Amino acid sequence: MTTKLIAERGFWGLSMQDVADGCGLTVPGMLHHVGSKDSLLVAVLEHRDEQDATSLAEQLGVPVHQLWTEGAPRVTLPQICSALVRRNAGQPEIVRLFAVLEAESLAPGHPAHDYFRARQRRILTTMSALAEGHVPDPRALAGQVVALMDGLQILWLREPETIDLITAWEAAAGRLFAGLFR
Question: What is the pLDDT of residue 181?
Fold first, then answer.
């Protein structure tokens, strides 16, 4: 419920009364559980990350606690990206939520500013590590992957009837990763 409201309205348009009503609580009762509107937002984002990690681990056949662990059964950058895109294609509301909040949080005063900054650094570091030994500049490739994924998702969200996210990703990834991961 909260995820849907944030995806539709963004953080600034989110009404705590609407969230409380959707949960069957009063606003004071809800605030007792989450502390503040800012805390609610971070909890929603962290929950999304946990769900994504569980789904990725299942898709890739890796225990969730080993998904990003050094020395664990490793998957390639193309495999992880493909799994992410397949997951996102099945949850447009969540992708919309993420896109709206990520854009809103570019403002330093946004309550998710630090969350998204840390998340971006973590993603780029992880993707760079997966690209090590395959390209001369793993960090640059990681940035290109993120930009491509985010851009394709925006196109898909605007035109879901004409753009197949998975097909668009696989075509672009085929060119981006050509000859790099064997």
Answer: 83
Taking the alpha carbons of 97, 100, 102, 105 in that order, is the dihedral positive or negative?
A: negative
Neighbouring C-alpha atoms within 13 Å toward the C-beta of 10: 10
How many domains, in total, are found in the chain? 1
Buried b (16+ CB within 10 A) or exposed e, 113-152: eebbeebeeebbeebbebbeebbeebeebbbebeebbeeb
| CATH code where residue 49 lies | 1.10.357.10
pTM: 0.82
Residue 126 vs residues 48, 74, 138, 146: alpha-carbon distances, Å: 18, 12, 10, 12
% of the chain beyond a pLDDT of 90? 49
Cβ(145)–Cβ(127) below 8 Å = yes
